[in-house]
Design goal:
- By secondary structure, this protein is an alpha+beta fold.
- Helices cover 25% and strands 29% of the residues.
- The protein has one helix at 34-47; strands spanning 2-7, 13-18, 24-27.
- A three-stranded antiparallel beta sheet has the order 1-2-3, covered by helices on one side.
- Strand 1 and strand 2 form a beta hairpin.
- The radius of gyration is 12 Å and the shape is globular.
Length: 55
């Protein structure tokens, strides 16, 4: 799995989570700064190990 930081058509930044088979799993909201998109992606990477599903 990889997090790709991309620029939107409105010149803002977002990240996309992409599976090893190339499928998009999720994408973020947009951010004004690239560093904010990167920081949000890093937060998810850091916290994902302790995740759980809630219904």
């Amino acid at each position: 799995m990889v997090f790709k930081i991309l620029r939107s058509t409105s010149n803002q930044w977002f990240f996309r989570i992409v599976a090893s088979n190339g499928a998009t799993l999720a994408h973020s909201e947009t951010y004004v700064n690239k560093s904010d998109a990167r920081s949000a992606a890093q937060t998810i990477i850091n916290q994902a190990g302790g995740s759980r599903i809630e219904e």
